[in-house]
C-alpha cells in the first residue's frame, strides 16, 4: 500500500494520499489549502484517484476538493449531514472499495455533526475527532460535547488497539499514533463519566 502524509495549509493540516500501490487506484483524504504538493505526488506516482474522502465539513479539510477533483475526476465523499455538495453521501457502516482497498465509515459526531472516521488496512483517519494526545474542539458550529463523549468512549476506543491513527492536524508529539497508545497516554481518553467529561472540556 502507498500511504503519504502531507502537512499543508496555514493550520498544520494533514492531507493523505492513499493507494493500493504506485500506479494503482487510490483516494485523497481531507485535501486542505495549498494542495499542490499532493497533486504533484498524484502525478509522480501515477495514482488513479477515485475518491476524495472528507472527514468533516470545515473549510481547512475540504479546501482542496475542487483542485483534486479537477485534476483527477475523483468523486467527493462525505457524511450525509455534510453541507458541502458532495458527490457521494455516506452513513455509519458504509464502505467504499478502491482497487484492493476497503474504506469503512464510522460516524463520530461531536466536533461536527458530520464527522466520520475512515478505517482501512490497519489505519484509521480520525480527522478532528481525535488527534495525537488531544481531541477536537466542540465550541465551533456543529459541535456537541455530549456527542463527542459517545463518539470517543462508545465508538473510537472500541476499535482495534493496533490501528494506526492518521489525525487531521499535526498537533501532537508524533505525526501518527495507535488506538492502543492513545487509550494509554491521551489524557482525553482516560475513563470519565459523561458529566466529568463535559466538565473537563470546559476547563
Can you tell me about this structure?
The chain has 203 residues and is an alpha/beta fold. It has one domain (2-202): Ribonuclease Z/Hydroxyacylglutathione hydrolase-like (Metallo-beta-lactamase, Chain A, 4-Layer Sandwich). 24% of the residues lie in helices and 32% in strands. The chain contains six helices and 14 strands. The chain has helices at 36-44, 59-62, 65-72, 145-155, 179-185, 194-202; strands spanning 2-8, 13-19, 25-29, 48-53, 75-79, 88-90, 95-98, 101-107, 116-120, 123-127, 130-131, 134-135, 164-167, 177-178. The strands form three sheets. It has a six-stranded mixed β-sheet with strand order 1-2-3-4-5-6, covered by helices on one side. Strand 8 (101-107) and strand 9 form a beta hairpin. The radius of gyration is 16 Å and the shape is globular.
Amino acid at each position: 500500500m502507498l500511504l503519504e502524509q502531507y502537512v499543508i495549509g496555514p493550520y498544520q493540516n494533514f492531507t493523505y494520499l492513499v493507494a493500493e500501490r504506485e500506479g494503482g487506484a487510490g483516494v485523497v483524504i481531507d485535501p486542505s489549502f495549498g494542495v499542490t504538493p499532493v497533486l504533484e505526488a498524484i502525478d509522480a506516482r501515477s495514482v488513479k484517484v477515485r475518491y476524495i474522502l472528507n472527514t468533516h465539513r470545515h473549510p481547512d479539510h475540504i479546501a482542496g476538493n475542487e483542485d483534486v477533483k479537477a485534476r483527477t475526476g475523483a468523486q467527493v465523499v462525505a457524511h450525509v449531514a455534510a453541507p458541502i455538495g458532495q458527490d457521494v453521501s455516506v452513513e455509519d457502516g458504509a464502505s467504499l472499495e478502491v482497487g484492493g482497498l476497503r474504506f469503512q465509515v464510522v460516524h463520530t459526531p461531536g466536533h461536527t455533526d458530520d464527522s466520520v472516521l475512515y478505517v482501512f488496512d490497519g489505519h484509521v483517519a480520525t480527522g478532528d475527532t481525535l488527534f495525537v494526545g488531544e481531541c477536537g474542539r466542540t465550541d465551533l458550529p456543529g459541535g456537541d460535547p455530549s456527542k463527542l463523549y459517545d463518539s470517543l468512549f462508545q465508538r473510537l476506543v472500541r476499535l482495534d488497539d493496533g490501528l494506526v491513527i492518521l489525525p487531521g492536524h499535526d498537533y501532537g508529539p508524533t505525526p501518527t499514533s495507535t488506538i492502543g497508545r492513545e487509550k494509554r497516554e491521551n489524557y482525553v481518553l482516560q475513563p470519565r463519566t459523561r458529566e466529568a467529561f463535559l466538565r473537563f472540556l470546559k476547563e
